TrEMBL record:
Gene3D superfamilies: alpha/beta hydrolase. InterPro entries: AB_hydrolase_fold, Esterase-like, Mycobacterial_A85_antigen. It comes from Rhodococcus oxybenzonivorans. The keyword Membrane applies. This is Esterase. The chain crosses the membrane at residues 14-34, 41-59, 71-90, 102-124. The lineage of its organism: Bacteria, Bacillati, Actinomycetota, Actinomycetes, Mycobacteriales.
């Protein structure tokens, strides 16, 4: 069944098929001719679905505002469609009166819900295949205790590929490790990290590889880089072209929960900056055999994670002199400046300016820092900000590049951004010539 797991749900015929089946299911759910269904049940179910969807919209966009940018209206529309189908199930079964009709009604609801989920997924490209949508992992996992500690023989030097010869029997694919990185100094409540280790890491002698700390968006989790971010396939492909060499990628948690937005600073919402600048590097250096030279370390991320990567690069350039900002915001925000100041900076504009990348880059020079800004060519909300911070970084003396790739604010852009810039990262981190 590997063919089914690899089937794309963001391109090709399957999204059209699922949407078509959903349309047929919707017709079936609406088509009962029983008078009480058409006059009472149908209007009531549709009204309830509309009211609940509107309430969710108001709560998310106007009251709670857990996300700094509004969610596309189409997402709420498809949520409402799926909810309406679920509400119609019982009345439609009663209206059909037969077991066969009931079975068709259940299938119709499933079809509508799947179609709605497919349309939502097409906005974000979060799950590229059937397998990823159902939690399938197309990579091998390894336990921290099975890594075997350090090897006495290592390969080091720059560029590393000029000194490296892969030993016989080296595998073709990397492995993924899930690990808890304790917040020893920050006390930040972080979720487990996902760590990619390339094929060359599992050899003896072992090359001392560079490290990329990668961050997810908000809402999001470290696992997002393994699914929609296509991290393992991207790194495995790079390793296949460079005799098993690729960066060790540590996908650390920079939010603490799926919807939290601690702004990647030290504040009452959590000491994220200290966690990423001190706790994560200390744990990696103590538990993984990697290159500890800061020139071999980079930080990157998507959306919130992209904003956070630039924050770390400007506030801690001695820790992360290299960064990859993919679809990051112009500045850390909870949606508006005053709300941001009140939540994390005690209402102080000056406290915000002390850590805000744009303000830092206006007053400091970063001649030893380098980075890439990637944004979707159709991302009207984030593209102007990306252009602004790119110019600010360039004016601050950074060695920076700007890249637009086809797409909007989605994993289609974020996965492509990582794939396109991995060679640059590898050269910058002195892994390859």
């Amino acid at each position: 069944m590997e063919w089914l797991s690899d089937l794309s749900v963001i391109s090709g015929p399957l999204p059209w098929i699922l949407t078509g089946l959903g349309a047929l299911g919707g017709v079936w759910l609406l088509a009962a001719r029983v008078p009480w269904f058409r006059r009472k049940a149908l209007p009531l179910c549709l009204a309830v679905a509309a009211v609940v969807t509107l309430a969710v919209y108001i709560a998310v966009e106007k009251i709670l505002r857990p996300f700094p940018d509004p969610i596309e209206i189409s997402i709420y529309v498809w949520i409402g469609v799926g909810l309406a189908a679920i509400l119609l199930l019982i009345p439609r079964i009663r209206a059909g009166r037969t077991a066969a009709s009931a079975a068709v009604s259940v299938l119709a609801v499933i079809a509508v819900v799947l179609a709605s989920a497919t349309q939502i997924n097409l906005v974000f490209d979060a799950y590229p295949t059937v397998g990823t949508a159902f939690g399938d992992e197309p990579f091998d996992r390894v336990d921290l205790h099975d890594l075997g500690g350090v090897t006495e023989r290592v390969v080091t030097g720059t560029p590393l590929d000029a000194l490296w010869t892969p030993p016989p029997g080296m595998g073709d694919e990397g492995r993924v490790l899930t690990a808890h990185i304790p917040a020893t100094q920050s006390n930040f409540t972080a979720r487990d990290a996902e760590i990619y280790l390339p094929p060359a890491y599992f050899t003896n002698p072992r090359p001392l590889l560079p490290v990329l700390v990668l961050l997810a968006g908000q809402p999001g989790a470290p696992e997002d880089w393994l699914a929609g971010g296509k991290l393992t396939s991207t790194m495995d492909a790079f390793a296949a072209e460079h005799e098993g060499l690729a960066p060790v990628v540590v996908v650390a948690d920079a939010t603490g929960s799926q919807i939290a937005n601690p702004l990647c600073v030290d504040s009452p919402m959590g000491n994220v900056a200290t966690y990423l600048a001190k706790d994560v590097p200390a744990w990696v250096a103590s538990n993984l055999q990697v290159n500890r030279d800061p020139r071999a370390w980079a930080i990157g991320g998507l959306s919130y994670g992209g904003t956070c990567s630039l924050q770390m690069a400007t506030n801690y350039p001695e820790v992360y002199p290299t960064f990859l900002d993919i679809s990051g915001q112009e500045e850390p925000t909870l949606g508006d400046r005053q709300r941001t100041l009140d939540a994390a900076f005690g209402g102080s504009e000056s406290a915000f300016e002390k850590v805000n990348p744009l303000d830092l880059m206006a007053t400091k020079k970063y001649p030893d820092s380098a980075g890439v800004f990637v944004v979707g060519s159709d991302d009207a909300d984030y593209r102007p900000g990306a252009q602004k911070v790119f110019q600010a970084a360039k004016d601050a003396g950074m060695d920076v590049q700007y890249l637009e790739v086809p797409g909007g604010h989605s994993f289609a852009v974020w996965s492509a951004g990582l794939e396109k810039e991995t060679p640059w990262l590898a050269q910058r981190l002195r892994l390859i010539r």
